[in-house]
Design a protein that fits this description.
By secondary structure, this protein is an alpha/beta fold. It folds into 3 domains: about 30 residues; about 170 residues, Medium-chain alcohol dehydrogenases, catalytic domain (Quinone Oxidoreductase, Chain A, domain 1); about 150 residues, NAD(P)-binding Rossmann-like Domain (Rossmann fold, 3-Layer(aba) Sandwich), CATH 3.40.50.720. The protein is about 30% helix and about 25% strand. The strands form 3 sheets. Strands 3, 5, 6, 7, 8, 15 and 16 form a 7-stranded mixed beta sheet that branches. A 6-stranded parallel beta sheet has the order 11-10-9-12-13-14, with helices on both faces. Strands 2-1-4 form a 3-stranded antiparallel beta sheet, with no helix packed on it. Strand 10, helix 6 and strand 11 form a beta-alpha-beta unit. Helix 4 crosses helix 5, helix 4 crosses helix 10 and helix 5 runs parallel beside helix 6. The longest helix has 29 residues. It starts with a helix and ends with a strand.
Length: about 400
């Protein structure tokens, strides 16, 4: 009886060892890590929302390409709709059509090459981890987040703004995306879905505030004006609040956005529609600051008229960060003597972010949540991929704050 038990155990052990070896061999061939916990079969094709003409997305289906030794296949969970996507939808200023847009995306790793071990910050990567991407260094894939600490990503490629090619899975408006060698990728498994969708726009503000700090004017006690309360302006207020800045006046023409600015930490809000002319608006801003003008201002509108006006709201010796113009929005008219020279205004421009800013953003989102800022409420509308045209139309109508495509 004892010998029979021993023989049965030996046979079972041999069978299990054989199955384990066969699974490991298959995973190695497919590019999956030997310790993969993914048992679900992957589809052979993926759907993408391709912008094929102005104002027109079409859902197309393409084969999922082979995953190279340094590539990552990600199942998309969601992607925010950015102002850049809106510009492409309306005008295609970058001449990308046909294109799969979406650069505020996140998802789960479902397959990865055998040479993929760490993310761009040195954090381990595994099947099942939640990730975001930042930029692609096709000409210099060895660039690290530390090399780029003082250089923004203006010269790099970004998923969601790539010309269509034979791979097609180039943007986050899809159900799968192929992250290729030379890309920056970050493990953000410790953040919830809405926080992950907000990482890219939040990185824009982390960078802007760092640029503002470089002037030496922005301090804890500063009176700070934020003009333009789309997602960018609202996130700007949140970043300032996590820094401990409390004296914030928010300016916009939409009351629902002004109300949300108060939730994000603005002390006072000013609706410019209630004031005729720059002098009246300047007086309203000063009233919000207890009779003073702003020490520092962030211009987030992308409106030439907004840029022209904001100098009036800043005290002599104050500072300005202009970050509203992500594309050519037209020329603004100012009087250099009165607006800059006589008041000795220090002006910095800000555009996108560095890799280092991207990593800092993860900590910002955790801090914002810890002090009770309603970051998740920025995502006001969710649409399935099949309704991406409706989502973009709603976005253009300003029906919400941050709209997102969410895959079920």
């Amino acid at each position: 009886m004892n010998n029979s038990n021993i023989n049965i155990e030996a046979v079972v052990r041999q069978v299990l060892e054989k199955l384990s070896a066969e699974t490991a061999s298959a995973n190695a061939i497919s590019g999956l890590p030997l310790t993969s916990s993914v048992n679900k079969p992957l589809p052979h094709t993926a759907k993408v929302a391709m912008l094929t003409a102005l104002g027109k997305y079409e859902i197309k289906e393409f084969p999922i390409p082979p995953v190279g030794e340094r590539d990552i296949l990600v199942k998309v969970e969601g992607c925010g709709i950015c102002g850049t996507d809106a510009h492409e939808f309306k005008n295609d200023p970058f001449n990308l059509i046909p294109v799969v847009l979406g650069h505020e995306g996140t998802g789960e790793i479902v397959k990865m090459g055998k040479d993929v071990k760490l993310d761009s910050a040195g954090k381990p990567l595994s099947i099942g981890d939640k990730v975001v991407t930042s930029m692609i260094f096709k000409d210099n894939p060895a660039v690290t987040m530390f090399d780029m600490n003082k250089q923004n990503i203006g010269g790099a490629d970004v998923y969601g703004l790539l010309p269509d090619d034979e791979i097609h899975l180039n943007g986050w408006f899809a159900d799968y995306i192929l992250i290729r060698e030379g890309s920056s990728v970050f493990n953000v498994s410790d953040l919830d879905l809405k926080s992950r969708i907000l990482i890219e726009p939040c990185a824009v503000l982390i960078h802007a505030v760092e640029r503002a700090k470089s002037t030496g004017i922005l301090r804890f006690s500063s009176r700070v004006l934020v003009q333009g309360l789309g997602p960018i302006g609202l996130i700007c207020i949140a970043v300032l609040r996590t820094m401990g800045i409390e004296n914030i006046v928010a300016v916009d023409g939409e009351q629902k956005r002004l109300d949300f600015a108060r939730l994000m930490g603005a002390d006072t809000s000013v609706n410019f529609k209630d004031h005729q002319g720059n002098e009246a608006l300047t007086n309203a801003v000063a009233k919000g600051f207890g009779g003073h003008l702003a020490d520092f201002a962030f211009q987030c509108t992308g409106s030439p008229a907004g840029h022209s006006a904001i100098y009036k709201f800043i005290r002599s010796g104050g500072g300005l960060c202009e970050l509203g113009f992500f594309i050519n929005g037209g020329e603004a008219t100012i009087n250099p003597h009165f607006d800059i020279c006589a008041k000795e205004i220090t002006v910095v421009g800000s555009w996108v972010y560095t890799l280092r800013d991207y990593a800092t953003t993860f900590d910002f989102l955790k801090r914002a949540k810890a002090i009770g800022l309603p970051m998740d409420k920025l995502v006001t509308h969710e649409y399935p991929l099949s309704q991406i045209n409706e989502a973009h139309i709603a976005n253009l109508k300003m029906e919400g704050l941050k709209l997102a495509i969410i895959n079920g």
